[in-house]
Amino acid sequence: MAGNDWINSYLEAILDAGPAIDASKSSLLLRERGRFSPTRYFVEEVITGFDETDLYKSWIRAAATRSPQERNTRLENMCWRIWNLARKKKQIEGEEAQRLSKRRLERERGRRDATADMSEDLSEGEKGDHLGDLSSHGNLNQSSIFEFYILSHNTRKHLRDWVGYWKQDVAICDLMELTFLEDCKLIHGLIRGENMELGRDSDTGGQVKYVVELARALGAMPGVYRVDLLTRQISAPDVDWSYGEPTEMLSPRNSDNLHEMGESSGAYIVRIPFGPRDKYIPKELLWPYIQEFVDGALSHIVQMSKVLGDQIGGGQPVWPAAIHGHYADAGDSASLLSGALNVPMLFTGHSLGRDKLEQLLKQGRMTRDEINATYKIHRRIEAEELALDASEIVITSTRQEIEEQWCLYDGFDVILERKLRARIKRGVSCYGRFMPRMVVIPPGMEFHHVVVHDGEIDADLDGNEDNPASPDPSIWAEIMRFFTNPRKPMILALARPDPKKNILTLVKAFGECRPLRELANLTLIMGNRDAIDEMSGMSATVLTAVLKLIDKYDLYGQVAYPKHHKQSEVPDIYRLAAKTKGVFINPAFIEPFGLTLIEAAAHGLPIVATKNGGPVDIIRVLDNGLLVDPHDQNSIADALYKLVSDKQLWARCRQNGLKNIHLFSWPEHCKTYLSRIASCRPRHPQWRRSEDRPEKSDSDSPGDSLRDIQDISLNLKLSIDGDKNEEDALDSEESIADRKNKLEKAVLKLSKGVGKVTQKTESVEKTDQNSSSSKLPALRRRKHVFVIAVDSDNVMELVQIINMIFTSVHKERMAGSIGFVLSTALTISEIHSLLVSGGLAATDFDAYICNSGSDLYYPFSHSEDTLNSSDLPFALDLDYHSQIEYRWGGEGLRKTLVRWAASVVDKSGLKEEQVVIEDEERSSTYCHAFKVKNSALVPPIKELRKLMRIQALRCNVLYSHDGTKLHVIPVLASRSQALRYLYIRWGTNLSTLVVFVGESGDADYEGLLGGVHKTVILNGACDMPQPPVSIRNYDLQDVVAFNSPNIVKTEQGYGSDNICVALQKLDLLKN
């Protein structure tokens, strides 16, 4: 296309246009210099919103082409690229609008259904409790401050009572490396206490510093004995050796906060080895190793609980007071650890997956599938949803994070959370519904090194003549050399040259306001650079546009933009601005928090900040500045002029900031943080009796423990005939009458679903006392434990697999060095039938994990002769139920599931036929079972989980591998979690477990493949390449490391010889 040089002007305009402009501002640009600008219109209407980095690079190459014909061809191709971008953007916007509309309808329907299930009409009190109450600060009036200090007093009281507790801060910051801070990683990244390599990569950002400093500050708080920051141990050649050290102590920053310490007290970074030992890998590749991290962390916690028990616990284990997960991968891990240990969980999302997905889709450069392939975004979002399910408290930095980011998740609804909280306060039942408490606690800072000079603000800036031994910082001269009059007040902006930071609007506001230009100077600290051409495309574009604006408005001598500065010089820059009676400004379009605003306030600078995001909370607390619309340059100019020209206002804002800045200190942050932990019901592992541990007395147990309050089976003893004994129990949400009805229903359900199982509260103790060959202590003495977890729906095939495994280790089995556990979705009655049909004895197994991990039984060794009688020779582990019942919806959840099942119908026949039917015979107290007649008509597992989460029902939804059965169990229950319980309860070493699985399995299959245990995949067992119903919303390869040396697949079938070969590969059998 000849004569298309006009394209070049369009492309130049694209590069100069800067960030998106709203409608009110657009009209000004379209009339620039009194005429309509089609170039500007094209840019604003078509291109705005896209990342032009690639276009910039292409344009540079095209412009450098000497041949006019080739140059025009390249430019023409770029025009087609732009047109395709515009078309793609409109298509994505339409799809997203439909998706958001559908999501809004689903949430409203779920909220309506949840409200309908809760029988009482909502009062005005329930409608109150505004979201603003979630802030940890509140209004700075006298009563608010008084209430805050009451909280602090109660916190210290609780912490003194926790003398035997220690805080486990799972900043799984880097599950593999604590580098998932600023870029959505925390289980990832490089974490150490000193000389942090912030910015080294996308996984090692500000979040790393936040988590390290939080752990350090908590370790220095009175009442906190120990804080462990768990992260990944990395011994890779391309990273420093310090990241391979197993333990690193975090020394307190301020010696004034030191209190009496014990032998193992303080804050520590504990590095857990998991994943590739010699590689530093990004967070997106860490998902397959999460289970391994959890097992390693669990081992450390158990070991440390014994050490602390000997030191300060009087010989009793000292368990963590709370587990705190940072970022998605750490949140997933913290959920599993919280469930295994039965301790409260906290979560901080930092960067959220759904918000990242929304932003990437808006850019229009990648499809959903491409985004998931790059960022494993579906796995990340599911991890965040699970963290919402398991957390008691979710900590955010701002209200904006709650209102605009967490509200994107199925598991959180501001309106429903408010209603549920009001009902709990009134003591009214929530019918099995739970919502985590959102708490705004801004990040803390260290201010002990900040020195504010109140006196000589107007001192001579040319040097310090009175004290030549302490000259002015060199950065002052570097900045002042730009100014014609360096004594004028300085307007300071500190941000990288990114369109989101809105620096261009600030320069325009300054350039077009003559009174402001005459009164003040402008200093732009825009990172470090050597040459603009060497900067990234977007940064170079913004910086070039800034320089053009300086030239356009002739701001030479009034604007400083130094090329270099050190991180250590930033405090000096703040001091210079304060010394000139200047102002700090953050004009970003959206600012999630605004740490620079707090830093500026600490140095005595009044602030002007965007009204979008965290600055709203900061200025409300500090009362030291003004909020502005970042799109309105006149508003920005007016606010800056007001503060610079009004000396009384400037002094008042400065004084308010200095007076209130302590509210953002680490000690203040920790007081609020610990008061929130103190409000959680204490929970920890607790057994009624064990022969190697003294019996736990009632006085040693927290009386208001959620487990003790809500445990149905704790005080329930069933005889062979189904009689029950009841003891009085307090319940935080239900009356005594409701409790009796619930117990009676539980008895009937157990009797129907399990059969006549001998369940005795003291069964473990009696078995140990009455039988020298008791199987329970044998779990501790086994050298290895083989877990058979093959999800075969063919009874004879499963019996054959069991016999083959028995045969492969016959010698070791007879010697007692190997024990066996059967892990299955079957009920205990179905297991009994299987044993009878296969000629197996109940005592052939040490334990039975049933109903997809919701029940745990042990063989009743002294009743082997009654195998074929009406009594089932199994003892139910009631302590396991007390571990998994957290947030179990019970009858309220069952009613919702039954209603959902009735809505899934087959309309293909002459009349509608229900597809999903409740299976009452296979259901139990902690497992709601359903039959699926046609798996092709049931929704994917993610849709059913979404439905439950929208209604604030927390549960684990599991389809069988063949799609014919559906189990709904407690959210923290699973077959893999049951194995961790055996480790906590009986000391069964997880590294000595060998798990046998088929080629496919139920929805919890992935949990059985990962971890520190060995896994044998039986070739030919459960061979179903494509399940009839979607049982997970991400690829199995994304979450399982099939190349791990701990996973072996039999070569030909699952005969005993093939199993022997697989065990030899795992070094479990000799040749």
UniProtKB/TrEMBL annotation:
<dbReference type="InterPro" id="IPR023214">
    <property type="entry name" value="HAD_sf"/>
</dbReference>
<feature type="domain" description="Glycosyl transferase family 1">
    <location>
        <begin position="485"/>
        <end position="658"/>
    </location>
</feature>
<comment type="subunit">
    <text>Homodimer or homotetramer.</text>
</comment>
<dbReference type="Pfam" id="PF00534">
    <property type="entry name" value="Glycos_transf_1"/>
</dbReference>
<dbReference type="GO" id="GO:0046524">
    <property type="term" value="F:sucrose-phosphate synthase activity"/>
</dbReference>
<dbReference type="InterPro" id="IPR044161">
    <property type="entry name" value="SPS"/>
</dbReference>
<protein>
    <recommendedName>
        <fullName>Sucrose-phosphate synthase</fullName>
        <ecNumber>2.4.1.14</ecNumber>
    </recommendedName>
</protein>
<feature type="domain" description="Sucrose phosphatase-like">
    <location>
        <begin position="899"/>
        <end position="1016"/>
    </location>
</feature>
<comment type="pathway">
    <text>Glycan biosynthesis; sucrose biosynthesis; sucrose from D-fructose 6-phosphate and UDP-alpha-D-glucose: step 1/2.</text>
</comment>
<keyword id="KW-0328">Glycosyltransferase</keyword>
<dbReference type="Pfam" id="PF00862">
    <property type="entry name" value="GT-B_Sucrose_synth"/>
</dbReference>
<dbReference type="InterPro" id="IPR035659">
    <property type="entry name" value="SPS_C"/>
</dbReference>
<dbReference type="Pfam" id="PF05116">
    <property type="entry name" value="S6PP"/>
</dbReference>
<dbReference type="InterPro" id="IPR001296">
    <property type="entry name" value="Glyco_trans_1"/>
</dbReference>
<comment type="similarity">
    <text>Belongs to the glycosyltransferase 1 family.</text>
</comment>
<dbReference type="GO" id="GO:0005986">
    <property type="term" value="P:sucrose biosynthetic process"/>
</dbReference>
<keyword id="KW-0808">Transferase</keyword>
<feature type="compositionally biased region" description="Basic and acidic residues">
    <location>
        <begin position="97"/>
        <end position="115"/>
    </location>
</feature>
<feature type="region of interest" description="Disordered">
    <location>
        <begin position="97"/>
        <end position="134"/>
    </location>
</feature>
<comment type="function">
    <text>Plays a role in photosynthetic sucrose synthesis by catalyzing the rate-limiting step of sucrose biosynthesis from UDP-glucose and fructose- 6-phosphate. Involved in the regulation of carbon partitioning in the leaves of plants. May regulate the synthesis of sucrose and therefore play a major role as a limiting factor in the export of photoassimilates out of the leaf. Plays a role for sucrose availability that is essential for plant growth and fiber elongation.</text>
</comment>
<feature type="domain" description="Sucrose synthase first GT-B">
    <location>
        <begin position="187"/>
        <end position="446"/>
    </location>
</feature>
<dbReference type="InterPro" id="IPR012819">
    <property type="entry name" value="SPS_pln"/>
</dbReference>
<dbReference type="InterPro" id="IPR000368">
    <property type="entry name" value="Sucrose_synth_GT-B1"/>
</dbReference>
<feature type="region of interest" description="Disordered">
    <location>
        <begin position="684"/>
        <end position="707"/>
    </location>
</feature>
<dbReference type="InterPro" id="IPR006380">
    <property type="entry name" value="SPP-like_dom"/>
</dbReference>
<feature type="compositionally biased region" description="Basic and acidic residues">
    <location>
        <begin position="688"/>
        <end position="707"/>
    </location>
</feature>
